[in-house]
Inverse folding.
């Protein structure tokens, strides 16, 4: 989320010469990885007259590839309600836009059937010039959606994102609450794009059969965020490595399961944290979750690249993974219920290892309550959270070219029992996290390559909802070019990024209600993209870019979705979709 600045110069200098050898020399500043409105205007003007350029006078649709949300078979609906419609002009440092929320009539009636799927749809338009902005949506202080906006074109862009918000069913059905949306936009003579957005809730209902306890949404969702009124988002802003932001929460005394869902996004000096040099605290970041001061879980974030990042053309019209709908991360707190059930307030805090300004972090505490008793009890049996292990090794061949490599790993394990009307059940939460990053500068500083992998295994065994999530986030970025210092230059960018995930639910043994069956789903979501910009006498005279994305999802319960889509410039070259599970994308 940059402020307006003259990015044009830095566009030319963005190869960050002497990156390794000279800490005071140019560093890969976020500005250097962005385009100014002038650059974009020059690119639009240089597009061929046919095809893409013709459409520059009409709206372009940008999209993030995701699987469509379908209600379970036999559901009724949707029952759709417009929650908010607003034009975000100069909103930076202003209070969030709010609207009174009360459950729609289809949900609030005493005979309303259970919700089988709840979808929050954000649809927005923008025209002119504008940077990507981060926005958040909160209901009763609990964050429901965080995203980056699309950067507009002169003729306008439109995009929409649909998020499954079924897990917030308790909030949606609860009494009156305030809906808040913060989108910190800035308008001036150059950046004139106003974001017009509609937020709609779509509800589907099921008849009869109740879902299994493991799959069911929490009975209560407690926000861990900042409270209104304020002039910003409700997220906490973590500013540096020692900054801990926290809130005090109390837990109903009959809870038997607790899961903390964490929202994170990186900004300013840490927007491209994975490219940071040792002088910028290196390329490793993690968000740690602290309960009364002790680390109880860690989030090793997926590197979301906003629509203006690295080279904004790359993300048009297919945006980067997670940019319109950022991923969230679950930390199982059930083993710690023993201390949380005392009826007192406890402190939930967030820190970011190696942080520079700024990280936006908040969370929702999902709680499942024992309907048959007013008191549950618990105890922590084992807890092991050794310090983060890691290193950064630098090698510099000659003063300019060189390499550094960073690694990190962390394990966290906690076991605790909870006794409720469901029995005395022991839950173990375990995280095994590892990270590696190399940053190689070559060609006398003319090229830089970042290759990173984050690997996160999170397992919940025993307990009310055994599950295992294995995530792997490969990231490769190449910045290069030729003709530096001459009147004719070429700037090259390449990005390869993946969000790979295997989730299994159920199984895992005694006490788990899902023990009878295990369902597994696998997602492989990959993008390969490149852009080339030609400059003559420092002015953009041409640009080309392409993107190829494959999205492969399969689940043991029969769900599947395959998509194979490719674009060149603003044009979609091919777009194969298959939800029939036939398993071929090539046609
Ligand atoms: C928002 O809703 C209004 C009223 O239905 C409609 O006129 C407008 O075009 C919508 N805007 C977007 C971005 O969908
Ligand atoms: C919610 O607000 C409406 C309108 O202000 C009011 O009529 C209703 O009684 C409120 N409901 C609850 C549960 O507070
Ligand atoms: C870190 O950030 C906090 C909160 O903004 C601030 O109070 C503190 O002085 C900062 N520490 C350093 C070392 O900059
Ligand atoms: C984490 O646990 C794994 C498997 O038990 C082990 O191989 C690894 O060395 C541990 N890492 C750290 C940093 O403790
Ligand atoms: C539950 O089981 C644990 C050990 O498995 C035991 O230490 C604890 O006392 C039991 N709690 C109750 C209330 O029975
Ligand atoms: C990145 O590193 C991984 C593991 O070392 C390697 O397999 C992969 O080929 C590298 N990617 C690129 C694009 O160089
Ligand atoms: C995607 O489609 C293209 C063009 O039809 C095809 O060549 C390619 O093999 C497909 N990729 C996958 C992973 O199916």
């Amino acid at each position: 989320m940059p402020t307006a600045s003259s990015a044009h110069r830095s566009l030319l200098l963005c190869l960050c010469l002497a990156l390794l050898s000279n800490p005071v020399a140019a560093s890969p500043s976020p500005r250097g990885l962005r385009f100014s409105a002038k650059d974009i205007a020059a690119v639009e003007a240089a597009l061929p007259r046919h095809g893409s350029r013709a459409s520059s006078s009409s709206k372009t649709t940008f999209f993030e590839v995701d699987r469509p949300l379908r209600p379970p078979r036999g559901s009724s609906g949707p029952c759709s309600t417009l929650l908010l419609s607003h034009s975000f002009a100069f909103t930076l440092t202003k209070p969030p836009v709010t609207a009174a929320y009360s459950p729609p009539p289809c949900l609030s009636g005493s005979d309303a059937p259970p919700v089988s799927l709840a979808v929050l749809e954000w649809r927005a338009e923008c025209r002119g010039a504008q940077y990507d902005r981060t926005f958040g949506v909160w209901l009763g202080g609990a964050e429901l959606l965080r995203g980056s906006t699309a950067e507009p074109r002169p003729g306008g862009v439109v995009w929409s994102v649909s998020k499954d918000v079924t897990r917030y069913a308790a909030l949606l059905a609860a009494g009156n609450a305030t809906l808040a949306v913060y989108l910190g936009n800035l308008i001036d003579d150059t950046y004139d794009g106003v974001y017009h957005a509609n937020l709609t809730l779509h509800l589907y209902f099921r008849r009869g059969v109740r879902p299994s306890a493991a799959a069911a949404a929490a009975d209560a969702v407690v926000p861990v965020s900042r409270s209104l009124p304020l002039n910003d988002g409700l997220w906490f802003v973590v500013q540096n490595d020692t900054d801990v932001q926290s809130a005090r929460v109390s837990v109903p005394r009959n809870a038997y399961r607790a899961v903390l869902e964490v929202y994170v996004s990186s900004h300013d000096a840490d927007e491209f944290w994975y490219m940071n040099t040792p002088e910028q605290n290196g390329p490793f970041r993690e968000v740690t979750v602290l309960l009364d001061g002790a680390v109880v879980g860690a989030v090793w974030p997926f590197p979301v690249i906003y629509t203006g990042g690295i080279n904004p053309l790359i993300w048009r019209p297919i945006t980067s993974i997670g940019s319109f709908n950022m991923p969230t991360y679950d930390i199982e707190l059930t083993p710690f219920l023993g201390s949380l059930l005392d009826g007192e307030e406890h402190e939930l805090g967030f820190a970011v290892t190696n942080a520079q300004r700024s990280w936006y972090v908040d969370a929702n505490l999902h709680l499942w309550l024992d309907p048959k008793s007013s008191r549950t009890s618990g105890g922590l049996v084992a807890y092991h959270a050794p310090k983060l292990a890691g290193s950064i090794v630098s090698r510099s061949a000659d003063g300019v070219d060189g390499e550094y490599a960073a690694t990190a790993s962390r394990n966290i394990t906690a076991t605790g029992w909870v006794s409720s009307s469901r029995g005395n059940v022991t839950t173990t939460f375990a995280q095994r996290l590892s990270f590696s990053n190399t940053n190689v500068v070559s060609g006398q500083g003319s090229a830089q390559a970042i290759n990173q992998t984050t690997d996160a295994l999170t397992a919940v065994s025993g307990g009310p909802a055994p599950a295992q999530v294995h995530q792997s986030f490969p990231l490769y970025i190449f910045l290069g070019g030729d003709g530096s210092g001459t009147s004719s230059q070429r700037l090259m960018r390449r990005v390869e990024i993946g969000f790979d995930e295997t989730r299994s639910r159920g199984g895992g043994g005694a006490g788990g209600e899902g023990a009878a069956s295990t369902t597994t789903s696998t997602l492989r979501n990959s993008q390969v993209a490149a852009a080339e910009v030609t400059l003559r006498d420092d002015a953009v005279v041409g640009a080309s870019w392409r993107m190829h994305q494959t999205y492969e999802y399969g689940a043991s319960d029969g769900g599947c979705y395959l998509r194979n889509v490719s674009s060149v410039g603003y044009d979609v070259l091919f777009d194969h979709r298959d939800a029939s599970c036939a398993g071929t994308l090539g046609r």
User: Anything to note?
Assistant: The pocket of 2-acetamido-2-deoxy-beta-D-glucopyranose (ligand 7) is lined by residues 550, 564, 574, 576, 585-586 (CB under 6 Å). Residues 37-46 form the longest helix (10 residues). The two ends are 39 Å apart (CA to CA). Confidence is low (pLDDT under 50) at residues 1-32, 508-515.
